[in-house]
Amino acid sequence: MNKDKIWLSSPHMGGTEQKFVNEAFEQNWVAPLGPNVNGFENDIEKFLFSKSSKEGAVAALSSGTAALHLALVMLGVKAGDEVLCQSMTFAASANPIAYLGATPVFIDSEEETLNLCPKHLKRAIEDRIAKGKKPKAIIAVHLYGMPYQVDKVNKIASEFDIPVVEDAAEALGSTYKGEKCGTFSEYAILSFNGNKIITTSGGGALITKTPAAKEKAVFLATQARDTAPHYQHSEIGYNYRLSNISAGIGRGQMQVIDKRVRARREMHDFYVDLFSEIEGVKVHSAPNNDFFSNHWLSVVSIDKEKTGGIGREDLRLHLETLNIESRPLWKPMHLQPVFRNAAFYGDGIAENLFENGLCLPSGSNLSQEQKERIKNGILSCLKEYK
Ligand SMILES: *Cc1c(COP(=O)(O)O)cnc(C)c1O
After folding, report:
1. Are 154 and 184 in contact (CB under 8 A)?
2. What pLDDT is stored for residue 384 in this prediction?
3. So what's the architecture of 258-385 in CATH?
4. Sequence ranges of the domains in the chain
5. Which of 221, 250, 216, 378 is nearest to 312 (CA)?
6. Which ligand 1 atom is at minimum distance from the Cα of 203?
7. CA atoms of 320 and 301, how far apart (whole Å)
8. Which of 146, 154, 218, 345 has the fewest CB atoms within 10 Å, measured from its CB?
9. Class at the top of the CATH hierarchy for domain 17-256
10. pTM score above 0.70
11. pLDDT (tens digit per residue) in 318-355
12. Which pLDDT score, from 0 to 100, does residue 386 have?
């Protein structure tokens, strides 16, 4: 095996990142504040809101996880509260609930978007209320870049007057009915970890509806210092601001975000093409034109019965021998040992997706030659189509 490794999703620099980082060094803004932090926030605000009638503000933070934590703090989630959360997601969606001593209650997915199922969401809310506790918040995720059923989820949330926290960590550049993901609720979060559609090497953002809410979030993210010549604190604070160095990388990345979305979507088209002739493999795609996914990762489900017995692990292991990375979907939170005592509302959709689903290499920087290797690798596994 001579070949370089093909990753699921690797960093893809645009070319101007180092210029912004160098400026930070030249001006000695080597700190968790500075012109790149402000510039990066402006870039994201413009990207999300400039073509919209909506308004909002962006606070750049040290991670998407930190942003979720702050969102829950801002909503007043406290020890003993319950927070509803999509089960099929990365653990970072749910962990901040536990940081606050609150209890997660997990909800199943629906088949069209793989995200929060409105039916089970409603059932869970009614049941939790009947059991004596109204949930404090709903964490909904645009998984793999696919928008969740925004209208349906928001309708239920407003019916019961429960705020939604929108986890758009994987969905920068995705839209629902023409509006950008990250703009549908009181608080939304983004991630710029190394494997996301753009990266700051590590970082995240909290999106708020108002500049005042952003100001409060930044106050909490910088140790909650009261106005005083000495250090004085009336609230518990956090050290969650993004470094001005990292933000410099982010400014460079924001110059190419549209290109990155296009390239990821082309990878999705590549798989739609490849699997169109192969029985038993479904490429997950937008249910209709309301949903526009950045296709951060391309996802397939494999039906062993129809592929002549070849399942998701067979394909994954086969690709591994060819030095091609692929990965099962997120293991649902209600199946995770750490959350084994949490309540769950659902009927096996997320579990089934986990059993049969596979994420395929989806980077925006895959060469023609690498795509050929992926294609040949997949075809040589699903043998009869060789
Ligand atoms: C990456 C990710 C996060 C966390 O973001 P970090 O920046 O890595 O802390 C949260 N939710 C989802 C769905 C993610 O994919």
Report:
1. yes
2. 58
3. Alpha-Beta Complex (3.90)
4. 17-256, 258-385
5. 378
6. 7
7. 18
8. 154
9. alpha beta
10. yes
11. 999 999 999 999 999 999 999 999 999 999 999 999 99
12. 46
